Amino acid sequence: MRHFAPMLLAAFALFAAGCEKKTQPAQGGQDGQAAKVETPPPTPADTNTILLGEVGSLTGAQATFGVSTRNGIDLALKEVNAAGGVKGKKVAVRVYDDQGKPEEAAQAVTRLITQDKVVLILGEVASSNSLAMAEKAQAAGVPMITPSSTNPSVTEKGEYIFRVCFIDPFQGFVMAKFARENLKATQVAILQDNKSAYSIGLTDVFTQKFAEMGGKIVTTESYSQGDTDFRAQLTAIKKTKPQAIYVPGYYNDVGIIARQARELGLMVPLMGGDGWDSEKLFELAGNALDGSFFSNHYSPENPDPKVQKFIADYKAAYGAVPDALAALGYDAAKVAIAALERAKDLSGPSVRDAIAQTKDFPGVAGNITLDKNRNAVKSAAILKIANGKTEFVTTISP
User: How many C-alpha atoms does 81 have within 13 Å on its Cβ side?
Assistant: First the structure.
């Protein structure tokens, strides 16, 4: 993360979108662990700026998720401001770091609503964090768009909650279908995070769909996020002789799981979901994930001109190829901007209604149509890991 001098931060406060930000401690919080403020908002007297809110895990176990998402959002807002803004106003974003903790996410979104008076909220990535946020946003009547939380329960919190990604029932179906039709697997084991709404949701759907397709789940083992020794669960899995193992977790756990699986002689493919998507995955796993597969929202190998332009612009701004979290952050911000343009005013009900009208929106992670439950209807990409990088395999549509 880049750091700027305080004077520069003050100078750029009205143009927060598109700028890298300096982390500052927020006031309040629980047990001395307050959510961290990333950018100061415009002053109350500034009527020429539309203020959005963003909550993400910029530090902590899933920090790459939050940083990638923030970068994608910043890039989108930088573009809209360069083109004249929305309704003649600049768009800024107030960012809070929730450190990957649901309680911090809830605290942060409460501050965005009650203190910062944002018109719309972007975030979170992890479904457990988004669930904590959604309850607050719904109660306050402030629209919220999650870029990449896939658990169905998030948008079930109410009519003010939206997402621009597919949901776990589709993602679980996608990998079950891939396991049966592409890998020809008939026996699969599952290793799930029993404290993650994301992991449990994927496990439930994969289990159901794989059985419906004629497959058998030979065992389901569990761990808790942050564990470092998975050998007992992997040893139990090995005894069942699976042809593949479904690990619907986050990259920071999956990388270690993969290493320990190979150390125990479990050489079958591992399969997972979009929670694997991080460069850190390869640092943790080495080559232990070669020959494994996961479902994701987009592939940088997509030749679509708008995708390649996004990748080029992102690389120029941040010096890296954008992952799916960056793409979805960018898409969420773009959907929000388009809705703000359509809305008759900036009240919660007007902005909510405008977001709900999103149809065939040309996102970089696929065209987005929001259904009656405020979920995005779109296809999923299957990626293979080989030599420490991903390769596009196929696309599976709804």
Answer: 21
3-state secondary structure of 210: helix
Q: Which two tokens stand for residue 76?
A: 């989108």
Report pLDDT digits (tens) over 179-209: 999 999 999 999 999 999 899 999 999 999 9
How long a stretch of residues is the chain? 398
- Are 164 and 368 in contact by the 8 Å Cβ rule? The answer is yes
DSSP states of 180-198: HHTS--SEEEEEEETT-HH
- Do 244 and 179 form a contact (C-beta atoms < 8 A)? yes
As a dihedral over the C-alpha atoms of residue 356, residue 362, residue 363, residue 365, rounded to 10 degrees, the angle is 120
Q: State the Cα–Cα distance between residues 56 and 328, nearest whole angstrom.
A: 13
17 pLDDT band, cuts 50/70/90, is very low
φ and ψ of 273, to 5 deg? -120, -165
Distance (Å, whole) CA 354 – CA 143 = 10
